[in-house]
Structure prediction request, 214 residues.
Amino acid sequence: MSQLTVNGVDLVADHAGALWWPERRVLVVADLHLEKGSALGLPPYDSRETVERLERLMERLAPAQVIALGDSFHDRTAEGRIGEEDGIRLRRLTAACDWVWTEGNHDPAPSAMWGGRVESEIVLSPLIFRHQAEHGRADGEISGHYHPKLSVAVRGRVVTGRCFLSDGIRLVLPAFGAFTGGLDARDPALRRLFGQGLAAHVLGVSRVVRVPLG
Prediction:
């Protein structure tokens, strides 16, 4: 885990790839992309792995609220491809707490069959949670969408890992889904969202490593 502060709020970047707000027991995940594998004609195992990781995370942290930051389903027909057992397990998770689906560009309106509630964005002052970061200064904004990753040198070799990005004003989460690509953290599309003091919090096997990016 890595401690970080966004708009004056103390948060935790968990090595599982989720954000934890201990004071309010709010768990935030981004870009699950359920059924991406089946959309590409690949074996449909990514949804099960993603749901299992969510189960372990929720068992460990026991959140009062879960916020899924959009693109939870890979496309508009993904819900029809989810296996019966995976669907049952997902509905069990959404029933265990106050679950909020925020609208994404891949899934603007997740079906009510999955439980929880759908919002375009959610405000828990002084933070605001939405799928995609808005251009310009956005104090307290927490978002996903970009799937940030960073390559770092470790013991003479280059390792690439998913990462959180924050300058203390706003934060972009890594993709939580088991089968997702990523955008380099130094890409202009990401860098222009942040001011000075930007840092990447890179996910390792059991810990999160903070890497200053300027």
Summary: The helical segments are 36-39, 46-61, 84-95, 188-191. The mean pLDDT is 89.
